[in-house]
Design goal:
The structure is a single chain. This protein has about 325 residues and is an alpha/beta fold. The chain folds into two domains: about 5-175, Thiolase/Chalcone synthase (Peroxisomal Thiolase, Chain A, domain 1); about 180-325, 3-Layer(aba) Sandwich (Peroxisomal Thiolase, Chain A, domain 1). It is about 30% helix and about 25% strand. It contains ten helices and 13 strands. The longest helix is centred in the last third of the chain and has 22 residues, at about 215-240. The radius of gyration is 18 Å and the shape is globular. The structure holds oxa(dethia)-CoA (UT7). Oxa(dethia)-CoA binds near residues 31, 39, 115, 158 and 220.
Length: about 325
């Protein structure tokens, strides 16, 4: 049966110019380069300039993705932007991107699922494409987490950074089997019972302020390894594939130890796993498209490869997306 699937027709990313190394962090809080590297793998993070907003990062990544896809804003039917650090409470940051790109038709909205945001946005975009409601969709993950960090809390401020990544999804006619090119499946999960393990202690309706990130790191770590391993097995089983079929895993980049523990549990060859967390720390919804763009630009993904994206974040939320490139 002929149907539509979403293929990734372009990728782009952007990291702000300013870099804060672990050595610099030593001057800000009671920490050491050694502790941060040993516990997280992080070496540095990029921080947005004072006048640089989430939308600015998103626009740069989006422009690069459009260029890579050889498309213009006129070709785009929909923009979905994953972020937990919007420019304003409303309107959606996606509409700022839409205006900056000069796009006057279609629709633009934000998705909020913290570090799983890009997977949620991709799954949503894919459903629009498969339903025949959009031909080209710009999917963006963009964050300025530096704005919600408590720079006196060493247990969180060393872990996060700012950045953006984007992909263009384009409708592609196919047979509807797991041999097709494009997104083969996406699986989303959440469990609100774990709200208080990773959250921001402010908000419009509660404190009328922005608040700061609070996290019970050890417990988040434990849940992350279990949930990520489960969601990978779910994606493989749904597509009647096994671990050996995967050519590249693009995990959410939170902590190198979480990546290592998850791939050990699943017995995935480490050379097939994208690791970029050392360069930009945890950029929440931006981390997967940042890592994906790097893997594509380094030619580590070839046409026909099976690429698995997976993430877990506050909520808890978690999910996967399996793509035949
Ligand atoms: O995207 C999803 C979001 N988040 C995550 O995925 C993060 C998940 N969790 C983690 O990555 C890890 O739990 C952390 C990196 C946050 C912490 O690593 P840990 O091995 O779980 O360390 P811990 O929290 O058990 O802390 C160990 C020690 C503590 O000292 P005591 O009580 O043993 O004396 C902390 O106070 O390390 C101390 N510590 C630090 N020391 C130096 C905590 N933060 C720091 C720091 N520098 N920045």
């Amino acid at each position: 049966m002929t149907t539509f699937r979403s293929i990734v027709s372009g990728c782009g990313s952007y990291l702000p110019e300013k870099i804060i190394t672990n050595k610099k962090m030593e001057e800000l809080v009671d920490t050491t380069d050694e502790w941060i590297i040993e516990r997280t793998g992080i070496i540095q993070r990029h921080i947005a300039a004072d006048n640089e907003l989430t939308s600015d990062l998103a626009i740069k990544a989006a422009e690069r993705a459009l260029k890579d896809a050889s498309l213009t804003a006129d070709d785009i039917d929909l923009i979905i932007l994953a972020t937990s650090t919007p420019d304003q409470t409303f309107p959606a940051t996606a509409t700022r991107v839409q205006a900056a790109l000069g796009m006057t038709k279609g629709a633009a909205f934000d998705v909020q699922a913290v570090c799983s945001g890009f997977i949620y946005a991709l799954a949503t975009a894919d459903n629009f494409v498969r339903a025949g409601q959009a031909k080209h969709v710009l999917v963006i993950g963009a964050e300025t987490f530096s704005r919600i960090l408590d720079w006196e809390d060493r247990t969180t401020c060393v872990l996060f950074g700012d950045g953006a990544g984007a992909v263009v999804l384009s409708a592609h006619e196919c047979e509807g089997t797991n041999k097709d090119q494009g997104i083969l499946s996406s699986h989303l999960h959440s469990d609100g019972r774990y709200n208080d393990l990773l959250y921001v202690d402010g908000g419009v309706s509660s404190t009328k302020s922005t608040g700061f990130i609070r996290m019970k790191g050890k417990e988040v770590f434990r849940h992350a390894v279990v949930n990520l391993a489960d969601v990978v097995e779910e994606a493989l089983s749904f597509n009647q594939m096994n671990v050996e079929d995967i050519d590249m895993v693009i995990p959410h980049q939170a902590n190198k130890r979480i990546l290592d523990a998850t791939i050990r549990k699943l017995k995935i060859d480490p050379s097939k796993v994208a690791v970029t967390v050392q360069k930009h720390a945890n950029t929440s919804a931006a981390s997967i498209p940042l890592a994906l763009d790097e893997m594509v630009k380094e030619n580590r993904i070839a046409r026909g490869d099976i690429v698995l994206l997976e993430a877990m974040g506050g909520g808890f939320t978690w999910g996967s997306c399996l793509i035949r490139w």
